[in-house]
Amino acid sequence: MTALPPHIAPVISGQVRYSQDQELPGMLHARILRSPFAHARIVRVDASALPDGVVALLPADVRELGRYGCQIKDQSVLAFDRARYAGDPVAAVAAESAEEAEEALASIEVDYEELPAALGIDDALTAQVLVHDRIQISDNDASYFGIRPESGTNVCHRFRIAHGDIDEGFARADVIVEETFRTAAAQHAAMEPHACLASWDGDRLDLWTGTHTPFNVREDVAGVFGLPEENVRVVCPPMGGSFGAKTFVRLEALTAALARKASRPVRCVLPRSEEWVTNNRHPSLIRVRIGALEDGTLVAKDVQAWIDTGAYADCGPGVAVKIGYSVVGPYRIPNVSVESRCVYTNAPPNGAFRGFGATQAVWASESLMDRLADRLGIDPLDLRLRNVLRSGDTFCTGEAVHDVHFADCLERAASAIGWKDGRRGKGLCVLLKGMQTPSRAAIAIEAEDDGSYTLRCATAEMGQGSRRALSLVASELLGVPVEEVRFPDPDTSIVPYDTRATSSRSTYMMGRALEEAVRDLRHDGRRGVGEVRNEGGLDPDTGQGLASSHWHQGAGAAVVRVDEETGKVEVVRLHAAVYAGRVVNPPGAELQNEGSMIMGLGGALLEGVVFADGQVTNANLSDYEIPSIADMPELTHELVQQVGAEVHGLGETAVPPVPAAIGNALGSLGLHVTELPITAEAVLDAVDRRDRAAREPA
Amino acid sequence: MQPEFIAPRSLEEVLAVRAERGDEATVLAGGTFLTILINQRLLQPSCLLSLGGVPGLNEIVANGDLRLGAMTRHRAVERSPEVVEGWPALARAFSIVASPRVRNQATVGGVLADADYASDPPAILCALRARAVARRSSGEREIPIDELITGYYETSLEPDEVIVEARVPRNDGPAVYRKFRSRSHEDRPCVSVAAARHEGTLRVVVGAVSGRPQLFPDVCSLADGVRLDRELATEIGRRYSEAIEPIGDVRGSAGYRRRIIAVEVRRALEELNA
Amino acid sequence: MKVSFRLNGRPALVHAGAGENLLTVLRRDLGVLSVRETCGIGVCGACTALVDGEPISTCLLLAPLADGCEIVTVEGLPDDHAVPRAFAEAHAFQCGFCTPGMILTAAALLDENPTPTDEEIRAALAGNLCRCGCYVKIMEAVRLAAV
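^ inputs. structure came back:
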């Protein structure tokens, strides 16, 4: 297939070599032994029966190593005192083949003393179990926002917004509605599992790993082994999807420790079932109370949110912050009070997941908007349009918003599903999502002797298309065909520092850095470096400041049909209108939107991790289902553009509006659900509740 | 340890191995289910006895009765003009099992011997009064499907027996198969209902809710000689829902399944009547 | 045990355990990395190969059962095959992990049914999961290849 363009041919012909395909001569294969208990003291680990030729990493090997964690350093390479979730690694082995390694696991004996566990948010807030006795805040730049643990509890971070006077606001309200919403844990289920290859040369470590946070990984792993950061090199081969799963340290510290002990390169490719005990989406419990005047003007909003970050904080504190302001929604509300807490439990760690808290926040916030519209007797679209942020308005963080298009997105979404022709079975949703702020990005351009150019930056390829988009921008800026722009895999020993390719910021931030790099290149014609920063951040105690240097904005619309005898929901139509600013790579942008909507559809109806006694019971792709092509509704979307506008990241904006739009479509039929995923069983219960209420005298 | 692999060229040889080694020789047909168990180390057979080399086991013969050889792939059943013509509900049930990939590999004998509660074919085969033909060196017997499958992944097959064929008698009335999925289109059934009329007698079989296909002839006999109207369909559904002790899993709780059984049995009977 | 088959038109001979699946053999012994493991239970389609012309989950096919078969992976499709070209033209991929399986499944569908309806395309591809969610463009690609 030589005639296909070089950025397409390897994909189509199956020649992409992913993280899991990386190899080194003499490489061993790793498997991990995990705790069967949600919470247990590790009494004894005995590897004396280990088969010959197998290397085991045991608690004694890691006790003296440093802890890691992007925001709180709470994770050791293996659990050596207590296992804090069912699935917590307690030992690992490396052998000539994955099969031998798997078999060797059975030769290691571990004695546990089971401890009472905190299973779920409610439990963690009331139980006497402390998942961590004390915590150490990380100095990694992912913990930029000021972490506020509540000592003596399982709360590892509390973020607060205080805007206006909440009591006075509710006192003015003619109508107040409130509700509690929950979302289950969800699993990223990237097609390629987590995979990492580690190799040591003296005290220098090379890691080839599926991650889009190479510099965070480098910093944390160097800390574990007490090495200068330069001694650790992180290379990011393409990933078979991530959706947030492949961020921060996952397998890297453990694989490196095994490789060091084995004095051989070691590769760890995670068996599918272990994905569910490695990183999931935060379950949430969100109580929202909102007050409005009779005419629909919002006057007060009070939110109490808790997210379950599992046994290790990961980026949970950051998710709590994002939830904190996303849950206010893109509305002008003079009086706002939010408390958003990140809670340790004895569940597998929860981390970044496409949407980064917005899915949970928008589910709660936008579902309640429809309840309010109901109570006020106002069309839900009109209620939103009356209150959405317009250019120059002040958000609850005190920042003025500009370049905002919420009303436009909403009206487009509504019109796409024929909102004005009747609202039964139809639902709408609007959202705002912040971009990583503060952050910085840097990129280098090198001119090659053959006239081509090489881009060096930390943006990893996981299917999101940022690298294609950046290549196109570079080709435009440099005035060369895109084929003349090369873009090797990120390698921390070569590329300039970058915060990370998360939060849908790569195209935007890197695009700006690229412009600077091209300017810089003009000086010597050989190499140019560009760096940009977006400054800002919020005060963790008041929520005031600058949440985001620009806003991801969108609206979703859904049409549903319900089998009221079974509760089965059929989504007939989905539409999303997303503000894109300026689109660089149209097919890539469309794919991001479509993919986001389909992931939103899965999150709405199918996807929830199920636990029994702290153990995941649906850790396979038959019991945990993701959408197939046959589950697709008629799906359309639009990228709202503006001449001269900035590029806006599109990686996740269309995920969060989908569940809430579907929930609101159900609400239009009198079927009120408060929990994600929306199971057929829950809808059938809602049918019962509605019908019971109709029978009861008013 | 890798298993021994035996692939006899004749049925006699297969039966001889089974006679000698019994369940120690794990019978391998298409292998879809078995391979999952092996991949996940839930099963580590010492010997695999493949039926793949035995001639004649993948034939479909429709000559009065329908005979489906044990090695007949699901795809062959769904594509067979004879089956589509004479047993359309059966062809349909086979055509909606899993994906084309699985149906290219999974066999009629395999799906019966696996006795997986959430497979589609057992319920419709049971409603159609099919029998599994089990052969051993000393002879063969025919086992009705609801007697073959005795529980979750359990059958009444003896260690020296091998299923060689499914025999499906001609059905003179209509038959239907309904697969209710509570989640995605690709899901296994939460509740499945097969229903068939033959010589005025009704057979309703509910699958995926319990260890074995659920058939209640007493309840079905309510329809003997009377018109199956909506009221009667509802009543039969209600009785099935009361009679069955459904399981609860990710596809629905026991209580939910109970309600769905009532609805889906009624719908199947309405469809049967349409 | 010895297992021999034809792989993409050429004879192949491997030594495999009877309990090993074809996916393992293709990746480990024959270096075919376009077949990929995602689910390990036959529900995702990332390890699809054509076996005697029909799509199969290689993770569910024990190696000895491949003996004597004609096996085709995406590398074995002719250069001018309509399906891969259509996937490229329609940009029907993101991370690309599922793409070879999708292409092979679509190729088998079009072999059997050159002018499928949308419903038939969905039914044929429903067992191939794409977590990036490229389904809109995958539908377009198959329609394009069918023309």
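Chain A touches chain B at residues 102, 565-568, 605-606, 610, 617-618, 622-628, 630-631, 679-681, 684 (CB under 8 Å). The mean pLDDT of chain A is 95.
thumbs up if we can close this ticket
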